[in-house]
TrEMBL record:
PROSITE patterns from the UniProt entry: HTH_MERR_2
Alphabetized Pfam families for the sequence: MerR_1 (PF13411)
UniProt-recorded name of the protein: MerR family transcriptional regulator
Taxonomic source organism: Shinella lacus
Domain HTH merR-type: residue ranges: 5-73
UniProt entry keywords in alphabetical sequence: DNA-binding
Length: 310
DNA sequence: CTTCTTACA
DNA sequence: TGTAAGAA
């Protein structure tokens, strides 16, 4: 009794879709098409509901083929939606990246086509490519040095940047600058000399890492407590670092070693410091200057050590 | 007046 | 997908 039936025109009016389209769906088997005596297609209320479902799926971007499979129960709704969602999210990420590229370009004082090209190229360089870039870089600077595998692996791990799916313009710029640094011959050469100085036969990586970690934490705590680098407590931390690092490198904690430390610090706070900063930007760390502050404090404490040393 | 099919843009 | 044309 309550069963209501519609001609194609009626269904078109109440669904707000064209007669043509409904006919097309019927012919494709997406909608049942019972015929009346006069060969008119007739539709039920459940057919109207199905038509609404099809519209919703279509507007979600699901293709007619997938809808067909869903209706033929060869796919579940969850499967269809999951597949569509995966594609959608990929597209969204791609668009976000592109928007970030445009913003990064527009952020420049006077953007040129070369800038856009450059940002675009870099943003499209996959994380895998970047990983390869870092590996080649580490290979190059480790060449000749007796660096152990564990250390090398860790070095690569901590040096590989990761471009987020939804990067800010700053992150695009950081990503681009990092790639440049990795391809910079001078930078590589400097680091290589530095590595060679470290990796002598006497170097004990585990002890060095240990000392560095301990010192970093001690310095960080001291800074938090407002202790100045000249204070006795700071001097103790600095002296301990000098002893421990010298021992880990098979050297004496003398004046020469101290000077070498200063030189090391100058280099570290240069391009290496910039590298760390860029990595921090990519990780979205707001406090990217923290490590720099800690090492600067330690360097000041070292400078305040009584001269001459023993 | 409506729908059907087929063909075309 | 829209539109046209001739038939039912």
């Amino acid at each position: 009794m309550g069963a209501k039936f519609y001609t194609i025109g009626e269904l078109a009016r109440l669904s707000g879709q064209s007669v043509r389209r409904i006919r097309y769906y019927s012919d494709k088997g997406l909608l049942p098409s019972d015929r009346s005596a006069g060969n008119y297609r007739i539709y039920s209320e459940t057919d109207a509901a199905r038509l609404d479902l099809i519209r919703a799926l279509r507007e979600a971007g699901v293709g007619l083929a997938a809808i067909g499979k869903l209706i033929g129960r060869r796919l579940s709704l969850a499967e269809v939606l999951q597949a569509r969602l995966a594609i959608l999210e990929t597209e969204i990420a791609a668009r976000r990246r592109m928007a970030a590229v445009l913003r990064a370009t527009l952020r420049l004082p006077n953007p040129a086509d070369a800038d856009l090209r450059r940002f675009w190229t870099m943003a499209n360089r996959s994380n895998k490519d970047m990983h390869a870039l870092v590996e080649r870089f580490v290979e190059r600077i480790a060449e000749g040095a007796a660096m152990d595998e564990e250390w090398r692996r860790r070095m690569i791990e901590t040096s590989v940047p990761d471009l987020p799916d939804d990067p800010t313009p700053d992150q695009i710029a950081a990503w681009t600058e990092l790639a440049d640094m990795l391809e910079d011959e001078d930078f590589a050469r400097d680091l290589k000399t530095e590595m060679a100085a470290f990796w002598t036969g006497a170097f004990d990586p585990a002890a060095y890492r240990d000392a560095a970690l301990r010192t970093y934490e001690a310095a960080q705590a001291a800074i938090a407590n407002g202790i100045p680098p000249q204070a006795a407590e700071a001097q103790a931390i600095a002296a301990a670092w000098l002893d421990d690092s010298a021992r880990a490198m098979g050297r004496e904690p003398d004046r020469a070693f101290l000077d070498w430390q200063f030189a090391q610090y100058e280099k570290q706070s240069g391009r290496m410091g910039r590298y760390r900063q860029l990595l921090a930007i990519l990780r979205g760390e707001n406090d990217s200057a923290e490590p720099d502050r800690v090492w600067a404090w330690l360097n000041d404490a070292l400078r305040a050590l009584p001269v001459p040393l023993k």
